[in-house]
Fold these 3 entries.
Entry 1:
Amino acid sequence: MKYDLVVIGGGPSGMMAALRAGELGARVLLVEKNDRLGVKLLMTGNGRCNLTNSELERRKVIDKFGKNGRFLFSSYFRFDNNAVVEFFENQGVKTKVERGGRVFPESDLGADVLSALIECLKKSKVEIKTDMSVKEIVKKENRIEEIVFVNGETVVADHFIIATGGKSYPGSGSSGDGYDFAKKLGHTITPLMPALTPIILEERFIPDLEGLALKNVEVSVFQNNKKIDSRFGEALFTGNGLSGPIILDLSRTIGQALAQKIGKIVIKIDFKPALNLPQLDLWIQEDFKKGQNKMVKNILDGLLPQRIIPIFISQSEINPEKKVNSITKEERKKLLLLLKEFTLTVGRLVGFEKAIVTSGGVSLREIDPKTMRSKIVDNLSFAGEVLDLDGPTGGYNLQACFCTGRSAGENVIAHT
Ligand SMILES: Cc1cc2nc3c(=O)[nH]c(=O)nc-3n(C[C@H](O)[C@H](O)[C@H](O)COP(=O)(O)OP(=O)(O)OC[C@H]3O[C@@H](n4cnc5c(N)ncnc54)[C@H](O)[C@@H]3O)c2cc1C
């Protein structure tokens, strides 16, 4: 059987492209190398799936993707964050908005988002083949003739969409195949780098802090003692460094700074960003007055998570058994500085295996932003993370997958 469209990759962008083309009447086949659809989608938002962001200003959403954001103007304007929310609510997935405009299913179950997409694929009569890994895309002159699977089977179609994702968390199926396909078909692939990644820190005590979550902290990045970026929010100690939303968002700056290889890169954690030094000093003095007969090691629990206190005290070089009433002004200052500027040395970024997205991809210059069609191969389009597009945390990356996927699916029918 010859299909109107074959979509390669059953992630959010491929599913959205397939169901939209099917809804518009195309005979669609969706092929996926895993034994089920949406493996990575189920990992998103720690299983809760932060499906988009509630940011009202469209321009601001576009800007989140840096200079490449302009590419999204057309597809985002036609399927923006409100449209994504409406799409899922129409499928019975109620949504809620959390800090930073992050939109989640009210149920906190990413599986509900996946089920809604699969239900729509069924309604749109999309044929789905899982456990089918595409090995080769065969092109003759300027058109794709067929695709060949690893098991030797072939499929022909009028049009093809590559929606194979990036190359992060390769165990999820997204192992970068789409970049190789695109390159062989004549497309340019811009340099690929892991983005939104945890960082590895050099301090020996880091493993002692594994699993410790920090809330409402400000983390700043310094290169050669110059502040180059900062974020406020949540972070999480891992076995060898730091992760969590603000760290992931800072990883781009850190990656660029590391690549420059000019000077040491440190991060400074401000545990009390709402207070300036004199205000925090007054606060501490109050605490010290109330607990003047306590030992230093027992006075800091109102200011810091328990697990980090021994490290603080050791860095301040104050005897932990010392009574609070005998702490000198100098020693208090040391504690103050640690609270405002707890300094950690950046070793490197974690690689593709733990990156949330891939930065770089199929060059946007070679794709029509209105249709997602290739400017190089007649019957080919792209959607999702395989494109040279990556945004910060907050639901922006899935939003980009949904709108580019929808646009790709919509514009197949218009041209076949
Ligand atoms: C841990 C984690 C958490 C995340 N959380 C969020 C979040 O909360 N919000 C957000 O906006 N973004 C989040 N992201 C990013 C988001 O998941 C991705 O940007 C998104 O899944 C990309 O969608 P996609 O459809 O382009 O590709 P993918 O989801 O990667 O899907 C591509 C599919 O193509 C298949 N495939 C690949 N090669 C072949 C082949 N040769 N033949 C057949 N099939 C193939 C793969 O198996 C895969 O299923 C998260 C990512 C990770 C790793």
Entry 2:
Amino acid sequence: MIENKISQRAKNIKPSSTLAVNKKAAELVAAGEKIINLSVGEPDFDTPDFIKQAAIRALNEGFTKYTDSSGIKQLRQAICDKFKKDNNLDYQVEQIIVSCGAKHSLFNVLLAICDQDDEIIVPAPYWVSYPEMIKLAGGKCVVCKYKEDFKMDIEHLKSIITRKTKAIILNSPSNPTGIVYSEKELIEIAEIACKYGIIVISDEVYEKLVYGGLKHISIASLGEEIKKLTIVVNGVSKTYAMTGWRIGYLAAEMPVAKAIANIQSQTTSNPTSFAQKAALTAITADQSFIKPMIEEFEKRRNFIINNLSPKIHYCKPDGAFYVLLKIGNMTSGQLAQKLLEEEKLATVPGDDFGAEGFVRISFATSMTNLEETVKRLNNFAERNV
Ligand SMILES: Cc1ncc(COP(=O)(O)O)c(C=O)c1O
């Protein structure tokens, strides 16, 4: 029997619940149900045309072969310039590794730093893929509890650090809560990381999607000591509506960057050649073209938080495009199921994010859908709270 041959490593991995809900919602829509799909984790905007044209040009010019395994020099230089301009971070080109999406960058990082049973701290509520990637890399996921404001409980963080703690994954702005850590909070986290010599894997993919005049701060920019301990991960998926292009990148101290470059060279090799050219065009363009998308997300976020019933308990997002919410006293699974059956809303159960009782909705959908969504959620709250 072939199923007996599947590795324990593979058997230990749960499928991504966000992708599973997406699939279920698509099936119901195909069967004629009027479902509003709130499970998506990508901007509902098309990739801007001038970025597509750059890829088409690259194809027409025959840029279709292997590239430098860590990414083309021009793109890595552009990423260095971006780090300097946006985050006040100085890196050499050799410290930048371009991969097939930030997800791939994160997995490369974990493969490069995890020995068997090394502990990686993941503050809840967390992105669903972190615990599974840690397991795949042989590490152990240790969850840090959250406070009422959905930010990490620093006292709990201090109490779970052991000799085996290798790293903490910081995700600001966060998926699934949209919380954004302030400079003061980041300094506190940086001090703990420096005190115990813990690596900070800083997932900054939602960097540009911040609202209410907030500015994203990279923890790596808070001083030389924390910069040396930080691996910054970012990508083009969310900022430029380029999820399908699969380009992400990271910046790390030389020994880590070298280890990751080796892993990538023996596994996937380079990220897609012409997608790199498209990413280069996106990153080096005048960035004002992303403003309308950010403004639209902010408008939608404001609409939701201004219109949700007080009976709904939710985390006000300062960034990203999600709202984590809770209605009544159900488990996440029950709530998601009832919302799908009774209100035709496809949401993602929060238990996979380490937030039992909650579901996540995405506002990467039209205002028309969101107006209807809020109406249905409020009706549901009326009946269930
Ligand atoms: C927190 C977080 N990190 C990383 C990623 C991966 O992004 P990419 O498309 O670059 O792989 C996602 C995508 O949903 C995400 O939500």
Entry 3:
Amino acid sequence: MGPVVLFLLAACEPTPPPEPEPTGPAGYARLDRATFNRVAVHQDLSLFWRSDANGDGEVSPDEVAFVWGGRVEPKQWVTDGSFTSNFAGAYERMVHEVGSGAPPDGPPGSEARRRSLVLRELDAGRPTLVEHDLSGLPAGEREMVARVLEAATWIERLYARQRGVAQIGAELGDDLPSRSLFRRNQGPWCERSGLADDPDCHTMPAKRDEAEQRGRPERHSGLYPASLQAEDPNFCDTLAKHPMADVLLSPFSVVGRMADIDLVSVPYTIAWQDDMHHVRDLLRQAADALPANEAAFATYLRAAADGFESNEWGAADEAWVAMNSKNSRWYLRVGPDETYFEPCDRKAGFHMSFALIDPTSVSWQEKLDPLRSEMEGALAALAGPPYRARDVAFSLPDFIDVVLNAGDSRSAVGATTGQSLPNWGKVADEGRGRTVAMTGFGADPDSLAAEREVASALLCSATMAVHTDDPGPLLMSTILHEAAHNLGPSHSYTGPDGKTAERAFGGPLAAVMEELKAQTAAWWLVDWLVPKGVIDEATARAAHVADLEWAFGHLASAAGDASDSDAYTRLSAVQVGWMLERGALTWEASAVAANGRDQGCFELHQGAIAPAVDGLAREVLGMMARNDVPAATTLVERHLAGDGPLVPLLPVIAERVGRTPRPSYVYAVTY
Ligand SMILES: [Zn+2]
């Protein structure tokens, strides 16, 4: 396979005619910041107006960030601290777009309708900046950052090949919103609910020289032969029944077809050798640049580089779990890992997560490590017999401050906030994987304002007064949640019937119970840690409000089809429903929400939380200790779609949360 240029380089761009620099007082104050950032996405500019630092309402060169992965080089926007004429032209076109209003819609199948849907899809994600200034680091580490970011562009190219969209990317015309959508969604399709199934929502413009429209591109994975996918809609099942299924569906290989008949397994390193060798070389250069005190990281970079040559990932996994928050300030995972993106759920998608260790996690690890046995004893008492406290030895998760997510890790909207890897091999089989929780998402001023907006639409004034912009309380609750996955009846526990939760409850219910246990224990442990002096009462109260807001966020997705809901949504329903029934949370129908506009709001009664949560923890842990399937089924079913008090309030939650677009993260790194 020859190289295919996925993202056109800046040099290949059709250069728009230069436009005169605007004069007069209006200048660069004609667009407010939110509009600037939204329209910059429409026009695929890879620019983000970070903040109006000097408060003059005008965008200035030191207030913009240059988004990673864009088609325009930063120096084309700003040189010597001033905006270029290129920027001036782009600004005029943005003003023109806003002044022209929404583009006309058109009949189904028309190019006008397609263009209007593309803008709607883009607007469903609020561009949100994740920015790091690493320019103060020692030269060696800055060199490493440069090489790792360069490797990330090849990772995205590999991921595009896996998704079968690399060729489509090369065929995009000069329709800027469509190119922007292709870059953000890493494919030609719309993804937001209500748009994903619309046949007109895609990036492929009508061919100018043909009357016939080009329809939405079929989803053909790049991991299986196109002919197989076209002739057999159940090709995943067919492959699973194939005598060579184990080989064909192995995670690090592509299925190919020889002479249009025989299916063969082609290792990633052969299918995409050139791209993989680029990543290999860049990771080795990154390792060479690192100083001696980053030896653990350099070892991982070299082992991962070897994986891109050999397709053997075991040594990289060993080096990866040997890295931790004590021996490196960096976090990197690069290679093929998760399978959710592909139709058969078997092949590992290429991704990169590049981050700095968040030092908060180190301080929490130090506070909580000595309490592990005591926490296990407390949760064992809540569970009751036949569960007995075990010896627990587990590592608390590292918190990572993400610098860049690329490939399968870069979502169009939202972001993964926790991950446990690897999925295969010796490290996974022996339970020696590493768990991380991602921080930094949502810490920017725009996200904080959006969260306040959502919270003040749902909460009454007294509860809203406890809402905080400080990420600390929610972070603390997250670390307790992750710790609790290792406490009480867990994956390896067998109940009185001799079955694990997985076998007794079945996959989906077991997953809900495990998450419900972890999140209920997080609420419970917050109050348990106050008298121990580990946290103060104000932090505990703020954590409860933050956890409630987290639950509302998940419940907002449940108003459609409850049967579709994931484990977090289901556990949120149980918690909120339970607290409504016990008066720890009340719906004040006659009160006005803290935003002063919405009729009806939620009030959290701090004094009633501890007894309600204690009751729920005993129920949930007890059901898991006894493998009580009927009781667990009733508990989980009634709060989302049954007769629970939350059910009639779900549409209200969905409407108020849904008013604020979800974040679409863009990354900017200075080094
Ligand atoms: Zn969890």
